[in-house]
Prior knowledge:
The structure is a homodimer.
Chain A: E1 2-7, E2 21-26, E3 29-33, H1 39-45, E4 53-57, H2 63-66, H3 69-78, E5 85-89, H4 96-102, E6 112-116, E7 120-124, E8 128-134, E9 142-148, H5 156-161, H6 168-174, E10 179-181, E11 184-186, H7 188-191, E12 200-203, H8 211-216, E13 222-226, H9 234-239, H10 245-254, E14 259-263, H11 273-282, E15 286-288, E16 294-296
Parallel strand pairs in A: 3-4, 4-5, 5-6, 12-13, 13-14, 14-15
Antiparallel strand pairs in A: 1-2, 1-16, 2-3, 7-8, 8-9, 9-12, 10-11
Helix pairs in contact in A: 10-11
Amino acid sequence: xxxxxxxxxxxxxxxxxxxxxxxxxxxxxxxxxxxxxxxxxxxxxxxxxxxxxxxxxxxxxxxxxxxxxxxxxxxxxxxxxxxxxxxxxxxxxxxxxxxxxxxxxxxxxxxxxxxxxxxxxxxxxxxxxxxxxxxxxxxxxxxxxxxxxxxxxxxxxxxxxxxxxxxxxxxxxxxxxxxxxxxxxxxxxxxxxxxxxxxxxxxxxxxxxxxxxxxxxxxxxxxxxxxxxxxxxxxxxxxxxxxxxxxxxxxxxxxxxxxxxxxxxxxxxxxxxxxxxxxxxxxxxxxxxxxxxxxxxx
Amino acid sequence: xxxxxxxxxxxxxxxxxxxxxxxxxxxxxxxxxxxxxxxxxxxxxxxxxxxxxxxxxxxxxxxxxxxxxxxxxxxxxxxxxxxxxxxxxxxxxxxxxxxxxxxxxxxxxxxxxxxxxxxxxxxxxxxxxxxxxxxxxxxxxxxxxxxxxxxxxxxxxxxxxxxxxxxxxxxxxxxxxxxxxxxxxxxxxxxxxxxxxxxxxxxxxxxxxxxxxxxxxxxxxxxxxxxxxxxxxxxxxxxxxxxxxxxxxxxxxxxxxxxxxxxxxxxxxxxxxxxxxxxxxxxxxxxxxxxxxxxxxx
Lengths: 298, 298
């Protein structure tokens, strides 16, 4: 799977960083975390089709994280989308419907299912689970985690020994269904290896360093955490309910994430050397996000 | 004065063209015609401050012409704006207020005066006049013209002969006020040349070729007209209430504009050679707009 950073700025856009948005290409779809103004154009710039987006998760209701939604949705309509679109977000996200109806959007040819979330599990399907938790911002902000349901290894040789012929029956067993061979029932657990840990990606949204997030992000393959400010601007981080590089790195360390990506960088910094240096002192496997950065996750 | 083309695409953005927006740098301010999604970033890319925008004129309520408003306004707030902002547009534009209140925008530190326009004169101040007229689109679309009030030439030598000393009194007379010199009243008309024609800029918004627009755009220094389609796609132009290159060029010719700029180019065309060729056959002084194109107008 791939993480594609579409926008890595904070409140204001710059020539090099657009408003917040991150795409996850996985499970045969594109999953979007936040959707700041201009997200659809960022996608056009790297030829990532909005038609493949099925799920959008909004961290909080500040403009720089949501103002790309009406245009993105309108463009899906222009392109003749018929598949439903699921949007999850904090209280207030359902006002989007009113905006789509009243502010420049044409009749939509597809269903938009908007769901105001609460803490806990919000999606549990065949391929992944999505959980969310409240963090600490000046309005309600949710962090989301998406965890792959990784199938156990299929023990081919064991299956053949039990008389199962290679083919569709392998798939049935691997997907958890029992089958009959020569009148004998073969159960999946007879031909599957031990459970395997799936990839887990956690995205913080905007937040002060948050204790609950440490448990929530535990053992993430990738933790994407905001680092709006350098360490020396901690007073501004506190005042505006954001995190510094070191604070974000501490969350990465305490949650024992494999990799930490810092994003939502304030426009006040022309380079991110200081942010990287501070974070690396605490957590070595850290990357400062850039627009259009693609990260393969495995 | 300068016209700066911030977005020259039609419904969808491309790598090279953003949604519709045109800035006019004149009269000590920036005047914006339409404000598609991402306009604030287009401005950031060429270092044009949104703080200098005092007036915004919206042609019609389709998303690709208005969805940049919430973000642009929010960014003005972030930057600590206190000056009022005037927004003019067709019925429905006042719904913007509700969106600003309910969809991600913080408390605004400045006044936003939104005015739904009708045909006729909508601004008449010391420096310019703005008129608008309905065109022919599938929803109400206004074309706008802005006409400079150009002062007559100041006849310096005549003034000196009448006993006026160079200095502030020259300015008073030039701005139309009478003064007293040695007990004698000097009237402006005694020291001013004949009336001079000011620059006139007309912007069509989205429209089928519109008869009324010919009179409205009469003698424009610059007419900015949409040309969403090439001539051979006239069926699509009719179906979607847009204009072809030749149709737009005809409006330029019949209104006797000095210069014609074609914009709102459909994403289906990878180059604009055919649009230029068709238009040039009818009206020679034509330019196909590009994003970031700056046109000095004098």
